[in-house]
Amino acid sequence: MKGIVLAGGFGTHLYPMTFSGSKHLLPIYDKPLVYYSLATLMKADIRDVLFIVNPQDMASYQAHFGDGSQLGLNISYKAQVSRDGIAQAFLIGEDFIGDDRVALILADSIFYGSGFDLNLREALDRDKGATVFGYRVNDPERFAVIDFGEDKKVTYIEEKPEEARTKYVATGLYVYDNKVVEYAKKLKPSARGELEITDLNQMYLDHKQLYTTTLPEGFAWFCPRTVDELFHAGEFIRVVQQSTGTKIASIEEIAYRKGWIGRAQLLSLASKIAKTEYGKYLEGIALSTESAK
User: Fold this and answer.
1) Pairing between β-strand 144-148 and β-strand 110-112 as defined by DSSP bridges
2) Going by fewer Cβ within 10 Å, which terminus of the chain is more open, N or C?
3) Do residues 155 and 201 share a domain?
4) DSSP states of 29-57 as a string?
5) What is the CATH number of the domain that holds 212?
6) 254-290: buried (b, 16+ CB within 10 Å) or exposed (e) per residue?
7) 218 vs 237, which has greater pLDDT?
8) Cβ atoms within 10 A of the Cβ of 243, count?
9) pLDDT mean over 95-106
10) Do 276 and 215 share a structural domain?
């Protein structure tokens, strides 16, 4: 299974904050927004990751993540030169995907809650078709609305309808079989000139191979696109972390606990930011797990 983090777009809703840099590198409390999407792929045991970014942001991402080896990952990069839609990711990433299946996550997606591992496993265990992660919202007209049966097969999907059939929407996380590149090549630009992810999902629906895994009640999903939404997401992360003593989307901790890096490597990563609370947290993880042996 391969993973794509789509970090394109210009963050126009966040101007002037994003005049000179990527929205997805802005902080959500104590870590960049993109950490949360990368952490989701890592939790799904995906180690081959492609970042698709704006050309002007390429150097910033490469400086931040390198080739991923420090996390036990294989990270590569490609540029989305023009804003031609989410589904363009599969054309840009065709060589990266190869003969494999692929998970795509939008870089501004934050998922948090119990049972998420089961949702990920349900999607990853499905060899054929596509899976969208369904979430119940109060304002479905802002998103791609879905309806589905007891067998988890999606029966309807529509992008930002004037009147929503249900309150369930597709979030910014998708899992596809290898036909996704073939289908993406058949897409035509929409009225706004983009290759729409909903049109791609409709192709799977037409073949009766579009499924959903629904995130449980009480689950938190954020896709912050305004200053207020960034603040809200950051405040949520702050409250949860301070009340639990654990960090959400600590990619270094995830890599360590999965055995992709050793204790010495975790301590090395912690030492680079030793004066920060985040660095002390990583050091504490390494020391506490060693003493527990």
Assistant:
1) unpaired
2) C
3) yes
4) TTEEHHHHHHHHHHHTT--EEEEEE-GGG
5) 3.90.550.10
6) bbbeeebbeeebbbebbeeeeeeebbebbbebbeeee
7) 237
8) 8
9) 98
10) no
In this structure, are 138 and 159 located in the same domain?
A: yes
275/24 Cα distance (integer angstroms): 24
Q: Do 64 and 31 fall into the same domain?
A: yes
- Per-residue pLDDT, 290: 64
| Cis check: omega of the bond before 161, within 30 degrees of 0 | no
User: Max alpha carbon distance in the chain (Å)?
Assistant: 60
User: What total of structural domains would you count in the chain?
Assistant: 2
281 shares a domain with 206: no
> What confidence tens digit (pLDDT) does each residue in 153-205 have?
999 999 999 999 999 999 999 999 999 999 999 999 998 889 999 999 999 99
pTM, to two decimals: 0.95
Contact 159, 132 (CB under 8 A): no
Instruction: Identify any residues that bridge with 157 across adjacent strands, giving them in sequence order.
Output: 146
Q: ∠ CA 256-259-265 to the nearest 5 degrees?
A: 50
Token couple for 113: 């809650």
- pLDDT at res. 100: 97
Pairing relationship of beta strands 31-32 and 27-28 according to DSSP bridges: antiparallel
Please name the residues in contact with 196: beta carbons below 8 A apart, sequence gap of 6 or more.
Answer: 85, 86, 87, 159, 187, 190
What pLDDT, on the 0 to 100 scale, is given for residue 293?
45
Q: Are 63 and 87 in contact (CB under 8 A)?
A: no
Alpha helices in 44-158 (DSSP H): 58-65, 89-92, 94-97, 116-124
Same domain for 173 and 103: yes
Q: Residue 170 pairs with which residues in a beta bridge?
A: 134, 144
* Domain span holding position 226: 2-259
CA–CA separation, 198 and 99 (whole Å): 23
Q: Which of 214, 198, 192, 206 is nearest to 161 (CA)?
A: 198
* Whether 174 and 223 share a structural domain: yes
Same domain, 174 and 70: yes
Interval 8-29: pLDDT, tens: 876 677 787 777 788 899 999 9
Residue type, 213: T
